[in-house]
Amino acid sequence: MILSAKKILELNKRYKLLENLSERETSNPEGVGIDIRVGEVYRLEGEGYLGETERKTPDTKKIADIKDGDKVVVLKPGELVLIKTIEKINVPAEKVSVEEGSEPRHLMAHPYPRTTLQRSGIFFRGSKIDPGYSGEMTFALTNLSTSPFTLELGARVVNIVFEQVTGEIHRPYQGQWQGGRVSAEKKERQN
After folding, report:
1. What is the pLDDT of residues 141-180, one digit of tens each?
2. How many angstroms from the chain centroid is the CA of residue 43?
3. Could you write out the DSSP letters of every residue in the chain?
4. Domain coordinates of the chain in residue numbers?
5. For the domain with range 5-45+59-175, which CATH number is right: 3.20.20.80, 2.60.40.2660, 4.10.910.10, 2.70.40.10?
6. pTM of the full predicted structure?
7. Nearest-angstrom CA–CA distance, 132 and 145
């Protein structure tokens, strides 16, 4: 079952599902999700590797950070960047009761691009967010259009939707991306 934005904000008071929300999202969110903003932008540099037991992501270079006063990034046609959110997500590792008296269940989150991105030719890549993950979120944007695209830091780019999980999970997320890490510094064993 997908949770409404109103329900997410109610649960946020108990579980701190989302930290650093904008005033708009705490007072006037729309529909079933909460909009999330871009705070940092990275370029990939070098090669990546994904093996059976080890991985190495390309090095990243931070090209913009809202905390440093950076305002905009321009994505050239064909350019891919990683974006890191201002908001931090905390998906509880334990089951939670969504409604009083309801059966406790795990939650997970799905990121969806805001439609302005796709209407501008920007391809968004994100992944599900498992129970137990805590940290800022990192997503990829690629400019598939033939024109440059200007992205203002602080803009709402992603809509996060929470959903209840039916059944048991083997274990909550304990992976190496915990805490909002953007890339691996060296080849490492996978969990």
Report:
1. 999 999 999 999 999 999 999 999 999 999 999 888 888 8
2. 17
3. -BPPHHHHHHHHHHH--EES--HHHHH---TT-EEEEEEEEEEEES--EE-SSEEEPPEEEEEEEGGGT--EEEEPTT-EEEEEEEEEEE--SS-B-SSTTSPPBEEEEEEEE-HHHHHTTEEEE---B-TT-EEEEEEEEEE-SSS-EEEETT-EEEEEEEEEEPS--SS----TTTTT--S-SS-EE--
4. 5-45+59-175
5. 2.70.40.10
6. 0.93
7. 36
- Give the residue from 156, 11, 35 showing the smallest Cα distance to 91: 11
- Give residue-wise pLDDT tens across range 70-85: 999 999 999 999 999 9
CB neighbourhood size of 106 (10 A): 21
